[in-house]
Automatic annotation (TrEMBL):
UniProt similarity note: Belongs to the amino acid/polyamine transporter 2 family. Amino acid/auxin permease (AAAP) (TC 2.A.18.1) subfamily.
Organism lineage: Eukaryota, Viridiplantae, Streptophyta, Embryophyta, Tracheophyta
Membrane topology qualifier: Multi-pass membrane protein
Protein name: Putative amino acid transporter, transmembrane domain-containing protein
Family matches, as InterPro entries: AA_transpt_TM
Superkingdom in the source lineage: Eukaryota
Record's subcellular location: Cell membrane; Endomembrane system
A GO biological process held by the record: auxin-activated signaling pathway
GO molecular function (one): symporter activity
Primary location group: membrane
This protein's UniProt keywords: Amino-acid transport, Auxin signaling pathway, Cell membrane, Membrane, Symport, Transmembrane, Transmembrane helix, Transport
GO cellular component: endomembrane system; plasma membrane
Protein's job: Carrier protein involved in proton-driven auxin influx. Mediates the formation of auxin gradient from developing leaves (site of auxin biosynthesis) to tips by contributing to the loading of auxin in vascular tissues and facilitating acropetal (base to tip) auxin transport within inner tissues of the root apex, and basipetal (tip to base) auxin transport within outer tissues of the root apex. May be involved in lateral roots and nodules formation.
Length: 468
């Protein structure tokens, strides 16, 4: 904070915002990049499988419903960034702070559990997905060299360790505001591999060959049993919910925007842009992937080896996935880092181990602020998520469960409840009834998706041998 007095008046006006913090410089373009980075992640890879479980009718409808719900509730959430007035009120820099100031009490604690459990889960899920893509690169080259029937089994665990080392290094970047370049790079990568997946699907469709598809997806008695059909349907809904999971970091993304134009207006523009772009890719990946593979669509359509050739393009797509998830991991991990570091700083403000920073110059990179506590704690967190990823490497089931855990509380319930309070919506008015109905509908969907995903994890654990 600048000291009072005329000497610092110019410095304050040019370097600090209205809340005394360093001036934010983000625009709706950079916020859109953050959103695309957060949304187009490992979820896009499972959409062909999800549509195969749902079929031509329910698949596109559910994709569209989740898109519209996410867009609507994200706009409600962006208005709560400042409270009580969405333009001139006090900033809520974190999701939990927003819930505390608007809803208070027990809701604040429930939000904290929901948000941070989900964030931890997403970083674990990204560790799993990145390692699967790295393995796919090695297997793709093996299949190209030795034929498509060759035994090219490769364990995931060494690649999870490699991914973890990269995340330990990147986690030393002090805060979210210094990650714009990483988000833009990751967004480009997400466009790249989604486009490659779409292109390969189109090429497979154009190449002919019969695949079984249907209005209701996989067929009972032919592809699956009736119970498998039910559980897979629920799990696929969770996969689609996970694909739209970015509400957990929406507030942190909005906090990067400069004060003028008003943050809520710019964030709505960014949200519309980001969700529209991702929904377009989701529909293309889901529907074209289903057209290409039919009811046999793999759980991950770039690593399930429905595509073998051109092997180099499959490799590039998986390289893009890895680069994207390296950046996306940081987008979702930063709120966790900030929570622990802020809490420790408040509790032990006199500790040099926790508060003192050192400026270290690195060749070709520049100067970097190093803090001993931050470096050790963040490294330990990455180790923790890497170990859990090794213990539970179940792609579709984990994604479905994460989507179920996060979608209802963070994407629907808290945004609608905060809007009702901030906008002072009268009880039992049409708007009040509509938002309550939406929340109840999404709760039912969430419970079904969670049940399907848990059943999938239990089923896979029966035959799973850790570290094999």
């Amino acid at each position: 904070m600048a000291m009072p007095g005329n000497t610092f008046s110019v410095d304050t006006s040019t370097k600090y915002d209205d809340d005394g913090r360093l001036k934010r410089t983000g625009t709706w373009v950079t916020a859109s990049a953050h959103i695309v980075t957060a949304v187009i992640g490992s979820g896009v890879l499972s959409l062909a499988w999800a549509v195969a479980q749902l079929g031509w009718i329910a698949g596109p409808i559910i994709l569209a419903i989740f898109s519209l719900i996410t867009l609507y509730t994200s706009c409600l959430l962006s208005d709560c960034y400042r409270f009580p007035d969405p333009v001139t009120g006090t900033r809520n820099r974190k999701y939990m702070t927003m819930v505390k100031n608007i809803l208070g009490g027990m809701q604040y604690k429930l939000c904290g559990w929901a948000q941070y459990v989900n964030l931890v889960g997403i970083t674990i899920g990204y560790s799993i997905t990145a390692s699967i893509s790295m393995v796919a690169i090695k297997r793709s080259n093996c299949f190209h060299k030795n034929g498509h029937l060759a035994k090219c089994h490769t364990p995931n665990y060494p690649f999870m360790l490699i991914f973890g080392v990269f995340e330990i290094l990147l986690s030393q970047i002090p805060d979210f505001h210094e990650l714009s370049w990483l988000s833009i790079l990751a967004a480009i990568m997400s466009f790249g591999y989604a486009s490659i997946g779409v292109g390969l699907s189109i090429a497979k469709i154009a190449g002919g060959g019969h695949v079984d598809t249907g209005l209701t997806g996989v067929r009972v008695g032919v592809d699956v049993t009736s119970s498998q059909k039910m559980w897979n349907t629920f799990q696929s809904i969770g996969n689609i919910a996970f694909a739209y999971a970015f509400s957990t970091v929406l507030v942190e993304i909005q906090d990067t925007l400069k004060s003028s134009p008003p943050e809520n207006k710019e964030m709505k523009k960014a949200t519309i842009t980001g969700v529209s772009i991702t929904t377009t890719f989701y529909i293309l990946c889901g529907l074209l992937g289903y057209s290409a593979f039919g009811n046999d669509a793999p759980g991950n359509f770039l690593t399930g080896f429905g595509f073998y050739e051109p092997f180099w393009l499959v490799d590039i797509g998986n390289i893009f996935i890895v680069i994207h998830l390296v950046g996306a991991y940081q987008v979702f991990a930063q709120p966790i880092f900030d929570l622990v570091e802020s809490s420790c700083t408040r509790r032990w403000p006199e500790s040099e181990f926790i508060t003192k920073e050192y400026v270290v110059n690195f060749p070709m990179i520049g100067s970097l602020r190093i803090n001993l506590f931050r470096s050790i704690w963040r490294a330990l967190y990455v180790v923790f998520t890497t170990v859990l990823a090794m213990l539970l490497p179940f792609f579709n089931s984990i994604l479905g469960l994460l989507g179920a855990i996060s979608f209802w509380p963070l994407t629907v319930y808290f945004p609608t409840e905060m809007h009702l309070v901030q906008a002072k919506v009268p009880k039992f008015s049409i708007t009040w009834i509509g938002l309550k109905t939406l929340a109840m509908f999404c709760l039912v969907v969430t419970l079904l998706a969670a049940a399907g995903s848990i059943e999938g994890i239990v089923h896979e654990l029966k035959t799973y041998a850790p570290f094999s």
